[in-house]
Design goal:
The complex is a heterodimer of chains A (about 140) and B (about 200). With about 140 residues, chain A is mainly beta. Helix content of chain A is about 5%, strand content about 45%. Chain B is mostly beta strands. Chain B has two helices and 13 strands; from the N terminus they run βββββββαββββββα. The two termini of chain B are about 30 Å apart. Classes of the chains: A mainly beta (about 140), B mainly beta (about 200).
């Protein structure tokens, strides 16, 4: 976050990347928030470490649904978000989310107590990220 | 479901726990109080407060059978709609039971010994949360052990009135004075009751 966002059409700097918006349950990026506006993932041509490139300024639009409105308010920011298992146990907090830069799919969520694969993510809300509890490791002989 | 590590907790430990939706990750309420039934060790559900420091009493309640999971840090429900509205029949049941609380009931053995009073209910948190025993306070007979609080496993059958809980005298042999050792006591006690039935 904070990465500059560039337009492919004009090569101009548009604004800063504020955050990404995931679907629910969280699996992939639906849109990126650029300043106070949003760009659909389909109009993002590159998500690099040096810049996020969007097709053109024309794709910038205001928040389109309740989820994006909540994203604007920071409600769904994942960094430092509490991680709760579906059994009601706290697992830690989110430290990093790794994305596939081509598809926008979440690959893994790094937490203070280890990595959580995307298929275990159940919901991202203002209170917490709910993940499926891992089965206990098999008892060692 | 996976055989998750089981956990024993006192029902009152759930007070203040957030109620969190599995489909939204939202803390939509917190446990205000635990509502007990009069039938054997029945938990009917929870009354709720709104979240936050100024959290006020909610009209909605959470019925026991709508609980998806009880954890060390939260009560999980599938979705926000699982809280029952005030006009629901279940709410009336919860309301009606408030004055017939098992907490404070005397515990008497079938040999006529007073063990103490119920101070809390112990829940075994496995795939299906289950009430497995009571915490008993004011137990002069059972505890020269410090604190005066002991845990007794719940027999599989038991007579309960508004006044007292009747337990088999054999329960004496399965009392535990710490919650950690209590899980084994529950199993042993039930085994004992089955073998002498």
């Amino acid at each position: 976050m904070g990465t500059r966002v560039m337009s492919k059409a004009s090569a101009e700097r548009v604004a800063k990347l504020e955050r990404v918006v995931f679907d629910a349950p969280p699996r992939r990026v639906l849109a990126v928030q650029v300043g106070k506006r949003f760009v659909d993932w389909s109009a993002v041509s590159g998500l690099g470490t040096d810049a996020v490139v969007i097709e053109s300024e024309e794709h910038l639009r205001p928040a389109a649904d309740a989820r994006e409105e909540r994203a604007l308010g920071g409600d769904l920011d994942w960094k430092g978000k509490r991680v709760l298992s579906d059994h009601g146990n706290e697992v830690g907090t989110v430290t990093e989310i790794e994305l596939d830069e081509n598809t926008g799919a979440i690959e893994v969520v790094e937490t203070t107590s280890g990595r959580v694969s995307a298929d275990r993510l159940l919901a991202l809300g203002s209170y917490c990220l709910v993940v499926r509890q891992e089965p206990p490791p098999p008892a060692s002989a | 479901m996976s055989p998750s590590a089981s956990l024993l907790l006192r029902a009152t430990e759930l007070i203040g726990h957030p109620v969190v939706t599995l489909d939204g990750g939202e803390d939509i309420a917190e446990v205000k109080d635990v509502v007990y039934g009069t039938a054997e060790a029945e938990l009917l559900g929870f009354t709720l407060n709104r979240r936050g420091f100024w959290g006020r009493r909610m009209k909605k309640v959470l019925a026991w059978d709508r609980v998806a999971a009880l954890g060390a840090h939260a009560v999980m429900i599938a979705t926000a709609g699982d809280l029952d509205d005030d006009d629901d029949a279940l709410v009336q049941e919860v309301k009606g039971s408030r004055h017939r609380n098992v907490i404070g009931s005397e515990v008497i053995t079938d040999s006529g010994q007073r063990l103490g009073e119920v101070t809390d209910v112990v829940i075994l948190v496995a795939d299906e949360p289950e009430v497995v025993g009571y915490e008993i306070g004011g137990s002069e007979i059972l505890t020269p052990r410090a604190g005066g609080h002991v845990f007794i496993p719940l027999p599989e059958t038991l007579a309960v009135s508004g006044e007292a809980l009747m337990v088999p005298a054999a329960v004496n042999d399965f009392v535990s004075d710490d919650l950690a050792g209590f899980g084994a006591s529950v199993e042993q006690f039930r085994e004992h009751l089955r073998s002498t039935a």
